[in-house]
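Methods — Computational structure assignment.
A single polypeptide chain was analysed. Its primary sequence is given first, followed by the predicted tertiary structure written as structure tokens.
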Amino acid sequence: MSPRGESSGTGGRAGGLVTPGRVAVLILGVLALVFIFENTRHVKIRLLIPEVTMPLYLALLAVFVVGLCCGYFLRRRGRR
């Protein structure tokens, strides 16, 4: 008898349904939703001359995306 014939209970996949990575992603997703629902009030943001009003979570998300872009640019530039 070979071990190939035995079922490991995972449906032939390398990992199970609940893995540490999936649990971490689920927790981060829940925390992101809590953050969004807690920061829905509108804030005034002034960028040089224009003043805009937007939800706080969108302003923080925009700054996060700008930071990611800057980090990506600097990382690519440093590899040359």
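Note: The radius of gyration is 22 Å.
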